[in-house]
Specification:
This protein has 13 helices and 18 strands. The protein is an alpha/beta fold. It folds into two domains: about 120 residues, Urease, subunit C, domain 1; about 290 residues, TIM Barrel (Alpha-Beta Barrel). Helix 4 runs parallel beside helix 5. The longest helix has 22 residues.
Amino acid sequence: MDLRINNGWICRIDNDRVIPAFADLLIRNGKIEQIIPKNFDDYSFSKSVVSDGIYDAGGRVITVPNVNFHDHIYSRLAKGLPVSGSMENFHDILKNLWWKLDLALDLEIVEASAKMAAIESIRNGVLYIFDHHASPASTKNSLKTIANVLREYNLRGTICFETSDRNGEVFKTDALAENVEFAKHSCDENIKAMLGIHASFTVENKTLETIKDLNKKLQTGIHIHLCEDSADNTISLDKFGDNALARLVKFNLINDKSILAHGIFLNESDYDIIRSFKSSLAFNPHSNLNNAVGLPEYSALPSGLSILCGTDGMHANVVSSFKQIFLQMRHQKSSFENTFSRMEKIYFDQITFVKKYFPDYPGLNEGDRADMIIWDYVPPTPINSGNFFGHYIYGISERQVCSAISGGDFLLKNYNLARNEEHVWKEVAIQGKRLLKEYKKLI
């Protein structure tokens, strides 16, 4: 179906620059066929003639879709759960909440979690998700379950299962098998695979050796928590004689397709090593604040280090995470000039990385795949390449996504989902009640 979007500020990407232009946009066969420039000064804000196949953006900003580079879809139903045991430090939080929660999951709960995540993601303009999954007692077909939901909602995703030795040999072997089975048989142009690892301190050397061989065969990257807390380094050193990053390097596990999530307890030498392997750090600022693990020392980040944004499963609003990084940098006394420069680089780092898995990720140029989001934001002052990020940080990020389009099809149109969501919330409530029951058995 052809679609024409009228009267939008189309924020094209070209050579690491955002180029806003007021224009109409013609979509045909899932691609942007033509961009038709208009004079914004002539636009009267009166409603244009609307008919089937025509959408009036009403002077709003249109950007490339958002990407969540570190999500935990399995955590979506984990609201209001009781906790038994200490929550005084991060290791206790893992042991007394998350490592009990993930053992309570089955495929029905995973599916409901994925549907909830899909709806929340679409409403936040997140059309691409890099998910790090865990359901150790129900591993087989868990990744396929998530992938099927993403396909159902017309989302694109890169999925893996976190491999860990913390639950014993059988669950570790199941996790490895699930990663391999999914990577070999369940991927297509919209769903990709990575090799999942929980964190260095819960993975034995023998397991890392196996993952090294698998990574070489599958030609993908790893997705791992790295130094989210100081325990990752201290326990790794105590058990294995190397810190967390050194172990990954020792087993040749990081490459330019790898996501290293968090990276709070790294030093400048570590950053240089990650940069030399062209791997990317995915910062999750809201989660780090919630877990009281600290913040990155942003001034220590080398300029060439690739940085991504994630939510760590806390929510789906990854642009809020982006802004939180900006605010944390300012809190650490980074100048406005340096902070805006870093945020611009992160914006383009993310586009560079997502293209390693989805080469057709769009830049809103003619011929590109028609993926885009329309923000409920009409620029109050002229918007251009020079001030786009001022609008993005202080304006766009504070507004809702009103419409989202994937492959030329509306997933969200004027705040209304293309798919009926009412039955989903009933299903979520049913599965959430089951999760609570199973979880209580483990606390």
